[in-house]
Amino acid sequence: MSSLTASNAWKALQNHYQQIQNSSMREAFNHDTQRHSKYAVQLNDILFDYSKNRINDQTMPLLRDLAHYAELPAKIEAMFTGVAINTTEKRAVLHTALRNRGNQPIYVDGQDVMPDVNAVLEKMRHFCHAVRSGEWTGYTGKKITNVVNIGIGGSGLGPKMVSMTLTPYSSDTLKVHYVSNVDQTNIIEELKGLSPETTLFIVASKLFSTQETMINANSARRWFLDSAQDTSAIAKHFVAISTHSENVAKFGIDTDNMFEFWDWVGGRYSLWSAVGLSIALYIGMDNFEELLQGAYEADLHFRNTPLEKNIPVIMGLLGVWYNNFFDARSYVLLPYDQSMRYFADYFQQGDMESNGKSVDLNGDKVDYSTGQIVWGQPGTNGQHAFFQLMHQGTQLVPCDFLAAANSHYHLPEHHDVLISNFLAQPEALMRGKTVEEVKQSLTAEQQHDVELVASKVFEGNKPSNSFLFEKMTPKTLGTLLAFYEHKIFVQGVIWNINSFDQMGVELGKILANAILPELKNQDVIQSHDCSTNALINAYKKLRQS
Ligand SMILES: O=P(O)(O)OC[C@H]1O[C@H](O)[C@H](O)[C@@H](O)[C@@H]1O
Predict the structure, then answer these.
(1) Nearest residue by C-alpha to atom 4 in ligand 1
(2) Which domains does the chain have, with CATH numbers?
(3) Which end of the chain lies in a sparser environment, N or C, as judged by fewer CB atoms within 10 Å?
(4) Pairwise CA distance, residues 499 & 503, whole Å
(5) ipTM value of the model?
(6) Which residues are catalytic?
(7) Is the CB of 207 under 6 A from ligand 1?
(8) pTM assigned to the model
């Protein structure tokens, strides 16, 4: 038994779970009209309401005991101060330094990282100004009109999600495109209609060796040179974002056109670094810095607020509560905002790559469940797709609802309807609908149809958090993203795992590299298990060239 599950704090939560597992949130709300104010926290314009959770007055203190058992406050401090908490890779974890708008020194190996952080921000500012103003031109003297970010995982998902969310802040004359998949469909479709004369490629890769990114970057270069016919023109159309200048030079991008970041920035936490260049080009550097400011304010909140009012801590502890005591295996992110359509995709990497681990910091196999499965899509679309399971299925799926009180656009009717749904769904999930309530809405004959009545009952008691904010601004987005990042960290600390490596992505890559040469010839392959052999041989038969 691990020391976590043997701890008094864990056992106290198990006992508490036994006591309250069947208690009803609907009744709790009926008895306590102060429940919302008891379980809500506000930061700036963001209201976080966690009152629709399966908790009572004892739950959060018991969860906080667990946080103290795991030494959460000290671990938060260790992260912010540059301790090498990525223990397998022996690295600091300092995405917070990238948005340290207070500019206090932060030391890694005795050296303050802030001058380098600020220098790259300055370089980004100059570059964005040059490109957006038209000062920076393509090889035929034309202004850049399209930016194509080539990068995968942390070097693609974050910039894409943020850019799409903040489209209302974008320039009318500069479009951004994202290419990540090695499936050629991605790059071919994104390049359709673009002109090499006015297209700028950003090749973003922490190590600049990721297979998908390098293949896409090579195809982009060929597409460009087919028109430009002159390798000296590459300098005006290709920039690199990386920690690895040697690999950038090897690829053929002038390191003057390289924006640097550092190994203490995890890929999935890198949108705040130069990896955010496509965002800054799209929405302007001032708005990019507003995004950083929002995250900085969340960082200050996370670092300095007592656990009981600390939004990411509460989010993380509730996640542990459902994952480890209610056996909830997933949670769903439901932004009622079409612009946030990649939010769940982004945190799939953020959460599942961080906390999908089964050994603890001592190298021992854990005897409790860790990373949760994250999924979701914007409301109201999800309501007409998967909400059925959330309301009446057998799985408990905790939900996060997010919405802005104001849209950037002004069509009549839409926004109140959107928000009425954002408000109604958590209410329905919490309240449910009893047999008596069902019968009231049926005819006398229908009331005797046992199956019909049963099918219309909603058990309710389904937990959710709600975030309501004034408007989706760069700053608000920055704050929300940092909340979720820190939530992931909190859970990793409780589970005693390293949230900052990702060894699990390696094996498949190695095996793919072994298979690739086997696809290059006509030989019948027999070197794998019979299933893999058969699939390889079937592919070789089916492919047309
Ligand atoms: O930025 P890169 O070095 O190209 O890495 C891109 C991505 O690939 C890896 O396989 C990791 O799973 C991700 O964490 C990373 O974000």
Answers:
(1) 205
(2) 8-70+307-430+463-500 (3.40.50.10490), 95-288 (3.40.50.10490), 432-461 (no CATH), 504-544 (1.10.1390.10)
(3) C
(4) 11
(5) 0.98
(6) 353, 384, 509
(7) yes
(8) 0.97
